[in-house]
Write a structure and sequence with these properties.
- The chain has two domains: 1-46; 49-95, Roll (SH3 type barrels), CATH 2.30.30.
- Helix content is 38%, strand content 27%.
- It is built from one helix and five strands.
- It has one helix at 9-46; strands spanning 53-56, 61-67, 71-76, 83-87, 91-95.
- Strand 2 and strand 3 (71-76) form a beta hairpin.
- The longest helix is centred in the first third of the chain and has 38 residues, at 9-46.
Length: 100
């Protein structure tokens, strides 16, 4: 009543099938969604412009006042003296200003 052959090649083949199935499942459950989110984040940061409202990864709300290649200067609150340079990677969300 053994499902595997006695020489062990059937067991080795089944183990290989299990490893492939687990690898495919890991790709679709972990790697693919992470790559998709990274693409979305890169697209959002590439469209960043002066005047956009942003939320940082720390939860601070501000307005972009200057952009360089890797950094942005964000103005926080109504105090015009609170300008902080930060990395683009520290921006979690971007909201474009509405034009009417």
């Amino acid at each position: 009543m053994y499902l595997l052959t006695t020489d062990g090649t059937g067991g080795m083949a089944m183990m290989l099938v299990y490893v492939v199935v687990i690898g495919v499942a890991m790709y679709f459950l972990a790697i693919r969604p992470q790559k998709k989110e990274q693409k979305r984040l890169n697209a959002m940061l590439s469209e960043l412009a002066v005047g956009d409202s942003v939320v940082t990864t720390g939860g601070f709300y501000g307005v972009v006042i200057d952009i360089t290649d890797e950094d942005v200067i964000v103005e926080f609150g109504s105090n015009k003296n609170c300008r902080i340079p930060m990395r683009k990677a520290a921006i979690a969300e971007v909201e474009k200003p509405e034009t009417e």
